[in-house]
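Ticket #667: bound-state structure for beta-D-galactopyranose.
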Amino acid sequence: MPAFPLPRLPRIVYGGDYNPEQWEPSVWAEDAHLMREAGVNLVSVGIFSWAMLEPRPGRYEFGWLDRVLDTLAEAGVSVCLANATASPPPWLAKKYPRSCAVARDGGVMFPGSRQHYSPFSADYRRCALALTERLAARYARHPALAAWHVNNEYSCHQQECHSDAATRAFRGWLRKKYRTLDALNEAWTTAFWSQRYGAWDEIWTPRRAPYHNNPAQELDYARFWDDGCLDLYLAERAVLKRHTPDVPVTTNFMWPFKPLNYRRWAQHCDFIALDTYPDPHGAPPEVAAFGHDLMRSLRPELPFVVMEQATTQVNWRPVNGLKRPGQMRALSLQAVARGADGVMFFQWRQSQGGAEKFHSAMVPHAGAYAGSRVWREVTGLGAELAQLTPVAGSGVKARAAIVFDWENWWALELPSKPARIDYAAVVADFHRLCFRRNLTVDFVTPDADLSAYEVVFAPALYLLRAADAMNLSDYARAGGKLVVSYFSGIVDEHERVALGGYPAHLREALGLVVEEWDGLAPGATRRVKLPGGKTTQAVEFAEVVHLEGAKATATFAEDFYAGKPAATRHRFGAGETFYLATRFDDAALARLLDGVVPRGAQAPAGVEISERREGRRTLTFVLNHTRAAVTVPLPRAAAGATDLLTGRKAGRSVKLAAFDCAVFAAR
Ligand code: GAL
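RESOLUTION: The complex was predicted; output attached.
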């Protein structure tokens, strides 16, 4: 169960990134006043302020930040204070040219945008920690300080560095991991292509090369990058914790985001913070829901908040559609429904200049006036979130789980595979299946305790350690339902194939062996016969499966493998396993797994019903994500309960206008 309230943080947070350095001090008092009007109780300050806080090397200017924090404290607005290290000032690049990150091809990242530093630069690190030290010492006891925000979206723009310092660090990292070159040569299969290493300084980071780099080297580099960024975060966090052991520390995560293994990072956060920017025109509601479910699952015992989202449009897609009236509210309440204890925005006041001036904010260019739709929705949401305080700290119970593993993501999407598999997209197929049934899912690691779940999905689990395969098998053997999809159980942690027939360690549990596969180009399909005789067109991957006890539930209907299984079912111990040897569309997947995957509350298409629980109390969120009015039958826990947003008692159903929502609290 979440441990909210964390010391100092409001129970339900509401606010945004606040960048007062972009404005004359005369605006600050108005900001504080407007924040109160909007119900804002937390703002993130200073994220990109380094150049203002240390305008010359070693010359710090905190006077302006003192005034900002004092003004906010007087207004009763708490601060999630950044240590301001996300983007170093230009002087740092001039003084220490090697602090800039280096791309695979040797190209240098220069200042002029943001986040151009290398996490492996000792100069960057020293200066960043010195600034952190000063900030922590100065504001440790400031009444506005509620939390620390470290750096910003680590690795967001810079996802590799091949500088000399990074190369040295990589060699050191490998030495620590493998101890001997023999062990490294073995793990990396360097007998292949004359890659055998005779000295540590013969090894480079995987730089530009004529053809594919060694996949084990690439995989280790991905781990090294994750480790290096985490190490930097831990150093920054340690400074803050030394000064203020009781102040919660976090850094903001993104979704979908491949370069960092947030599972590991979450172990070092005091609460989880997510930045979420689903395309309001293109993305259906399950896209944002995926991120919320993943974030909640990283540390279920900790609170999570949406730290950034857009009030309406962003600036960084090729075309930026706006959120329609009510859509921002619905997406915000969706986050709360799925476990968030508050939502914040990027940003408070829309910038006048700079690259993000057309990114929406809580206070738009037009200003905060009653006629502004954005401002009206912002103040409306602030008032409503205050009414949702009873939700704070309540938990979310999931009946299903999806295995999601960052290491697998890194390995699966390396080149030279039978087909291009987009891991997040394949996983989303299964999340969407559950979302449309209002069945809440947790995301778990392959070694997690799975016993609480009625069904567990393991999509495209290409990299699978033997012990983890055993964990999945044991879950099924003990009575669970395990659904595995194609290209699973293929390699170990060194990208070495587990020989003897795929999916090696899962073969017994699934009751089948895969001998070969057909990679299908984008647009190519293979006809598959479903139960009941209907056919569907499968895509991406088609495996040639030999049954070893499992029964086929669908078969390929073309190519030389016509008649061979495309989906199977197998009794295993007290449970059952299911295998999908190709990628099915939503309708076929639902058909194949009907009766296997339980259903949550019934609702019309586009309406989400999610529950949070606190003790015996159930809070039911009914969210209409469509542009049409709907009547939604209420699940038992909500019928006759009171809507926390309107104060009205419900009957057996609720009518909701376009994008409207209700939150029922039942005892
Ligand atoms: C985030 C970032 C913010 C802002 C925002 C715009 O990635 O943390 O600083 O750039 O995107 O959507």
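RESOLUTION NOTES: The CA atoms of residues 519 and 541 lie 5 Å apart.
TICKET STATUS: resolved
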